[in-house]
Structures are given as structure tokens and as C-alpha cells.
Design goal:
By secondary structure, the protein is mainly alpha-helical. It has one domain: Four Helix Bundle (Hemerythrin (Met), subunit A). Helices cover about 80% and strands about 0% of the residues. The protein is built from 5 helices and no strands. Helix 2 runs antiparallel to helix 5.
Length: about 180
């Protein structure tokens, strides 16, 4: 089978794609008015769904990490692909929600407000980094370059896990507490 992309071309493509997603998301949330849905479709369940998807991604990541530590490569692959799937569905749902709903302000006060913004800012910053990290890690695994996959996964795993967990925390602080 002929190799379609060199590592350099693939990583460049990943960075361009990730940058495009980031610019689109930034524009979607901060520079345009939300679209109005016909028939007043209620999107109120999407934040809960998104938190669930982040939670399932975090659980899958942990199970995949444990599996690879136990040398259970098939289980590791299933768990990591599950985490990837949950995160992809999350991203689609998140984009859909923000297309029609816009940004959600935080109304907390005092020390909770500082904590919320610390978690949110770190979550957003690392979210920017995690997409190209995930795609690069998956690329190396798909190419069966497990040496490079393992090296990048050491960075990707904790960042992805943090983003997934803090996504749930942001939801809890916005909607529950």
C-alpha cells in the first residue's frame, strides 16, 4: 500500500485543520449572533449531553491507559477509539449548540467566580492544544509508528484527560452549582 502522506505533510494538514476549527469556533461564539431555530426547538439538553460525552471520553481514556499498561493492545485501541468518538460527537454537539444558543454567562460570585474562570481559561487554552495532539497521536497509531505514537501520547493523554474532566466541571459550575 502506497503511503499517501509524509509525516510532515500530515502534521501540517492537522495543524491547518485544527486552526480552522479554532477560528470557526471563536467566530461562532464571540463574533456572531446565534441563529434562531424554527419551531422553537429546545436545546436545553445539549449542555448535559456534552458533559456526559466529556465524562465518557475521560472514562474511556483512563480505561485505555490502564489497558496499555497491562499490555492489552486490542482493549487499548477500543477504548481510545471510543474516547475519540465521544470527543468527536461532543465537538459536533458543542458546535451545534453554540450555533443556535450562543455563549452562556457565568452568574456565580466570590471565590467560586475566580475558581470557575481559572478552570474555564485553562480548559479553553488546553482545548486549543488538544485537537492537533489527538489527531497527531491517532495519525501515528494509524501509520503503525508506535514509537512516535507513544511519545506524543505521553503529552496527549494528560491534556485530553484534563480537558474532558474540566469540561464536566465547567458544566457543573454553570448549570448545577
Amino acid at each position: 500500500m502506497k503511503i499517501l502522506f509524509s509525516n510532515k505533510t500530515a502534521i501540517s494538514s492537522i495543524l491547518v485543520l485544527s486552526s480552522g476549527v479554532l477560528v470557526f469556533l471563536f467566530w461562532l461564539i464571540y463574533f456572531r449572533e446565534p441563529l434562531m431555530l424554527e419551531n422553537s426547538i429546545d436545546l436545553g439538553l445539549l449542555p448535559s449531553l456534552n458533559a456526559l460525552l466529556n465524562f465518557l471520553s475521560a472514562v474511556s481514556l483512563c480505561m485505555g491507559f490502564i489497558a496499555i499498561r497491562k499490555r492489552k493492545k486490542a482493549l487499548h485501541k477500543k477504548m481510545m477509539l471510543s474516547a475519540l468518538g465521544f470527543s468527536a460527537i461532543f465537538l459536533i454537539s458543542y458546535l451545534f449548540y453554540h450555533t443556535f444558543q450562543g455563549d452562556t454567562p457565568y452568574n456565580g460570585e466570590g471565590w467560586q467566580r475566580y475558581l470557575y474562570f481559572f478552570i474555564l481559561i485553562s480548559h479553553v487554552f488546553l482545548s486549543i492544544l488538544v485537537l492537533p495532539l489527538i489527531l497527531t497521536t491517532v495519525f501515528f497509531a494509524a501509520r503503525r509508528n508506535f514509537s512516535a505514537h507513544s511519545q506524543i501520547a505521553r503529552i496527549t493523554f494528560p491534556v485530553w484527560l484534563y480537558v474532558s474532566i474540566t469540561g464536566v466541571l465547567v458544566y457543573l459550575m454553570l448549570y448545577i452549582f
